[in-house]
Amino acid sequence: MTFAIPKTAYTGKIKEVVLGRGPKAITVGGETSYPFHLFEGEMPHTPRIAIEVYDTPPDDWAEASLEPYRDVVGDPVAWAKKAAGVYGADMIALQLVSTDPNGLNTPSDQATETAKKVAAAVDIPVIVNGSGSPEKDAELLRKVAEACDGMNLVVGPVVVENYKQIGAGAIAYKHTLAANSPIDINLAKQLNILLGNLGVPDGQIVVDPTTGGLGYGIEYTYSVMERDRMAALTQQDERLQFPIICDLGKEIWKTKEAKAEDSPLMGNAAKRGVLMEAVTAQLLLLAGADVLIMRHPEAIRLVREMIADLMA
Amino acid sequence: MIRIGENLNVMIKKIGAAMKDRDPKPIQELAIAEAKAGVDYIDINLGPARKEGGDLMAWVVKTVQEVVDTPLYLDTINTEAIEAGLKVYQNRKGKAVINSIMARPESMESKLPLAQKYNAGLVALLWGPSGLPRDANERGVLAAELMQKAAEFGIPNEDVWIDPIVTPITSPQSQVQVPSCVEFMKMFQDFQEMAPGLKATCGVSNVSNGAPEHLRPILNQTYMMLLERYGMTSAILDAFDDDMKAFAAPGGKQDLKKIVYKVMDGEDVDLGSLTKEQVNYVKTTKVLMGKILYSDSWLEF
Fold it and tell me: Which residues in chain B have Cβ-Cβ distances shorter than 8 Å to A186?
C-alpha cells in the first residue's frame, strides 16, 4: 500500500503587488500555498531582501553591523548605492529615524529631500519608513509621496491613527502602503479593511505585522503571520490576502545580545549578531514573509542561500 | 432561558457608593427594576470584598430581600462574605447560588461545604489550577472534577451550574477559545446524561468585550444561540437588554436559529435568499465558530 502525504486544501491566493517601477520593479506575493510548500501550491515570486539605509549616522550600532557601512554612514545616497551595488540589495529601505519628534526632530521637508535623492540614486524599489510617530509620519509620508510622484515607493508604517492622511497620498501619487498593526491579527485585518474603504487599491497594500526579534517576541510575530496565512489561504479571508513585509534588522541589532562584546560566555560578537539576524529572518520566511528589511550583508547572504535551497 | 441580572454590581458607581454608605435606596430601586424586567435571579456582585465583606453581603442580601422575592446569586471570591449572605438568605422563590466555585482545591474545599450546609446552588467555574483551560477537553476535565467534588458533598445535580467561561472574540487567543467553549457544550450534553438536571450558565456578554458598542448585541445574541443549542440554559446578563429578553423568551427567533444551526454544521447557506438581518447573523456565526477571523468590520464583508 502506498502512503500519500496529506495535503492542505487551499482556497485562497495572496495578491500580487508590484513594488518600484521600470525594469527593476519587483513583484511580490501570488502564493497559493503556505510558505515554501511547493508540493502543495505555487510561490511564483521569491521573497526579497531590502537593505536598511539611515538618514543620519547611527551612534549606537554594534561594531559588526557598522563595519560594512562605515565609509557611507554620513551619506544616505552613497549608502544606498553601496547597498545596491556592493551587497546586491533587492530593495532599499530608507529609515527616516531622525524625523522622530522625541529625537533630532528633522523637519519633514528636509527628510523628504533625502528620500527624493535616495530614490533617484538607485533603480531598485525603495521603501521609505518614518520614525513611527503617527502624527509626524502623517505629515512626512504625505510629503514624500508627493515629492516622489509615480515612483511606487513603499511607505510606512501606516497605522490606524494616520492611515487616512498617508492613504490619500498613496492614492494620489501611486505608492504602496505598509499597513502596520501591533502584533495583532484582528487589528491587521481591520486596518486592511479601512484602507480598502478609503479607496486604496489592493495592489498597493502590504502588511507589516510588527516584528519582534529572536528572544524578543519573535514567537508572537510568528503566530500572527501564521494565522494571517491560514485565514488568507484556507478561509478565503480576502482582507488578509496581502504580501507581508518584516522590518527586522533594527530589532535584532538593538538588543543587548547583539551589542555585547566578545566574551567566553557569549562567543564572538560579529558572528552572534549575524546569526541572530539570519535566524530571525529564517523564521519570518517560514511564517510567510515576502519582503525582509535587513542590515548585515553576511546575514543576508545566509538567508539568500536558505531561500535558494527551499525554492529549488 | 433563565436570565440572571448582572446590574447590581459594586463596579457601578452609584451602587458601589450605596454599598459603601449602606444606603438601601439605590440598591432596592435597582433590585425592583431588575425584578420588573423579569429576571429569574439577581446577581449581587461585591467584587473581591476583602474588607468587611461579610457584613456587606449580609446587609445587601437583607436589603434586597426586603423588596423582592427573586432568588439571588452571591457573587464574590470572599468565602466569608458568601457564608454571611447564605446565613441571612430567605428562600422564598428559589435557592441562593454561590457564584462561583473554581476547579481549584482551595476554592472547592472552602465553598462546597457552604453549599451543603446552607442548601445552596453553586456556579462551577471551569477555571483550573493553571488558569483558563486551553480547549474543550481541558474544560471537560475541570467540569468532571467539580461535579465529582460536588457529589461528594451531596449537592444535587440541579444545584450545579457549570460556567465554561466565555472569552472576548476581540482577543487573539479567542479564535481558539470562543469556538472551544461551544465545543465544550457538546460534551456538556454527555455530562447531563450522567448527571440529569445539571445546569449551565455563562457571562455571555463577555464575548463582545472590546467590540464596538453598537455591534455588541448581535455578538451576544448569536453566541447565546450557539451555546444554547447544546444545553446552555441560562446567562448572566444586563437585565435591561430588551433584545436579549426577546431572545430569551420561549420560542424566540426560531427561524433565525434554524439558519444559524446550518452555518454551525458547515452547510451552505444561500445568502441571496436571506434578509439583511439574517445575513448578519450568518456572518457573526462564522466569526464565532472561528471560520472567519474577527475584525471590527466583520459585518461589511
Answer: 170, 172, 293-296
Q: Which CATH number fits domain B2-256: 3.20.20.20, 3.10.129.10, 3.30.70.1120, 1.20.1250.20?
A: 3.20.20.20
Predicted confidence pLDDT, tens digits, chain A (312 residues): 789 888 898 999 999 999 999 999 999 999 999 999 999 999 999 999 999 999 999 999 999 999 999 999 999 999 999 999 999 999 999 999 999 999 999 999 999 999 999 999 999 999 999 999 999 999 999 999 999 999 999 999 999 999 999 999 999 999 999 999 999 999 999 999 999 999 999 999 999 999 988 889 999 999 999 999 999 999 889 999 999 999 999 999 999 999 999 999 999 999 999 999 999 999 999 999 999 999 999 999 999 999 999 998
Give start and end residues of each alpha helix (H) in A29-105: 63-66, 76-85
**Helix, strand, or coil (residue A8):** coil
pTM over 0.80? The answer is yes
Answer whether A186 sits within 8 Å of B292, measured CB to CB.
Answer: no
Which residue is listed with cell 452609584?
A: B14
Q: Which of B172, B175, B295 sits opposite A193 (nearest CB)?
A: B295
Q: What domains does chain A contain, in order, with CATH numbers?
A: 17-311 (3.20.20.20)
Task: Out of A223, A224, A235, name the one closest to residue B291 (CB).
Answer: A235
Nearest-CA distance from A247 to chain B in Å?
22
H helices of A131-216, in order, are 134-147, 163-173, 185-198
Task: Answer whether B291 touches A (CB < 8 Å).
Answer: yes
Boundaries of every domain in chain B: 2-256
* Cα–Cα distance, A60 to A54 (Å, whole number): 13
| A190/B296 CB distance under 8 A | yes
What is the C-alpha to C-alpha distance for residues A300 and A255, in angstroms, rounded to an integer?
Answer: 18
| Pick from A146, A153, A226: nearest CA to A188 | A226
